[in-house]
Amino acid sequence: MTDLLQDDCNLIILPIDQMSLYHQATLTEVWSPIGQTPTVRVVSQRDHIHFYGALDVRGGRQFAARADEQTSEITANFIRALLTLFPRQTILLLLDRAPWHKGIAIQEVVEENDRLHIMYFPVACPDLNPQEHIWSLARDAVSHNHHYKDFEQLIDDFETFLNDNYFESNFMDKYGPPPNSIVLF
Questions:
Q1: In this structure, which of 6, 79, 155, 175 has its CB flanked by the most CB atoms within 10 Å?
Q2: Whole-angstrom Cα distance, residue 58 to residue 176?
Q3: Domain locations along the chain
Q4: CA 89 vs CA 14, 182, 184: distances in Å
Q5: pLDDT tens by residue, 6-65
Q6: Does domain 2-24+43-171 have CATH number 3.40.109.10?
Q7: How does strand 48-55 pair with strand 62-67?
Q8: Of 20, 39, 36, whose CA–CA distance to 147 is shortest?
Q9: Contact call for residues 80 and 113 (beta carbons, < 8 A)
């Protein structure tokens, strides 16, 4: 990553991840006054949709899109969409080792774009991926402890929360080069 930053100080660093949003209510801890037990209505439907998300760790902008499934082809299409959002910048994608982050479709999109670079997170380290934390924030704000009669409304609200907010990340503070540093060879 340091080499890429040295070559291009405008490098876009995008951790990518996917999650599944279910219509069925998800619960988490909540404060309530003594004697007033909170209630959450539950929908028995198991409808779900997947979301792809990428966080610009240097700017805080979130890019999220719906997907019916998680495959290498859909991942490649999401990456192509990111390339159109950043038409001239060099992009470093940070991916976990999910099966849909590898394969021919991913190799093809990398080979088609010399300004695209991929780095994989270590195995079994989801906490390293800042996108995982964005999912958690979105669930807390939209889907945990909330009841939606209409699944489409839940999906819309979730997607709006993701794409309309900026999210601070300390990823570069933790894993990037020190500020104003120069790497000498």
A1: 79
A2: 10
A3: 2-24+43-171
A4: 12, 21, 24
A5: 566 789 999 999 999 988 666 666 677 888 877 666 655 678 999 999 999 999 999 999
A6: no
A7: antiparallel
A8: 39
A9: no
What's the CA gap between 54 and 108, in Å, rounded? 20
Question: Strands 116-120 and 91-95, how do they pair?
Answer: parallel
Residue 126 identity? P
What pLDDT, in 10s, does the model give residues 139-173? 999 987 777 888 999 999 999 999 999 999 888 88
CB of 13 within 8 A of CB of 127?
Answer: no
* 16: Cα within 13 Å, side-chain hemisphere: 27
pLDDT tens across 91-132, in order?
999 999 999 999 999 999 999 999 999 999 999 888 899 999
Asked whether 90 and 4 are in contact (CB, 8 A), the reply is yes
Q: Give the whole-angstrom CA distance, residue 27 versus residue 13.
A: 32
Read off the tokens for 58: 């240097």
